[in-house]
Specification:
By secondary structure, the chain is of the alpha+beta class. The protein has a 6-stranded mixed β-sheet. The chain contains 4 helices and 6 strands. It is globular and about 80 Å long. Strand 4 (110-119) and strand 5 (122-133) form a beta hairpin.
Length: 175
């Protein structure tokens, strides 16, 4: 009987400790989601306020920004140079998150996200990767994409074809 009671206590302790571990993990993940969301919300806020310094402090030193055009793949320094005139005029761009998903690596060092944004270009998709560096989440890669409703994709393709056929040709010759 003592062995049966001991076994029962051991099983209960195991279940309880796993339950606490799952609760801690869930709590930690929720806190980190809030922290990552704050970085992304601040990114949008600092752009709308034309706060160049704080905007770029959200990016890791070795980061990449991928814009809506095929050739817009910039490291942090290049993106800073490209965007400086927009910030200098007093308002860079104004994006608002409509929907956001955030995921984490098992070790909690990396987060990746996708979100739908309300922008001057209508709905866009932001996606990217953040890394926890020195206790702070920093953007490693950010990708901005213009969404195209399936109902009008043929029309959009006709409009952009003359511009992008040239780019396709140039990229093929560089292979």
């Amino acid at each position: 009987m003592k062995k049966l009671v001991s076994l029962f206590v051991l099983i209960c302790a195991f279940i309880f400790s796993n339950s606490l571990s799952a609760q801690k993990k869930g709590f930690y993940e929720n806190v980190q989601k809030k922290n990552v969301s704050k970085v992304l919300d601040d990114l949008n806020l600092f752009a709308a306020q034309a706060d160049y310094k704080n905007y770029f402090e959200l990016f890791a030193e070795e980061s990449i920004y991928i814009g809506t055009e095929a050739g817009e793949v910039w490291n942090k320094e290049e993106f800073m140079a490209w965007s400086k005139p927009y910030f200098d005029r007093g308002k860079a761009w104004n994006f608002t998150s409509l929907q956001r998903n955030i995921y984490f690596s098992k070790d909690g060092t990396y987060a990746w996200f996708d979100e739908l944004l309300d922008t001057q270009m209508k709905i866009c998709r932001g996606s990217g990767v953040l890394e926890k560096i020195g206790g702070k989440w920093k953007i490693r890669q950010y990708v901005l994409s213009v969404t195209v409703p399936n109902d009008v994709v043929d029309e959009v393709t006709k409009i952009k074809a003359p511009l992008e056929d040239r780019v396709i040709s140039e990229l093929k010759t560089k292979k």
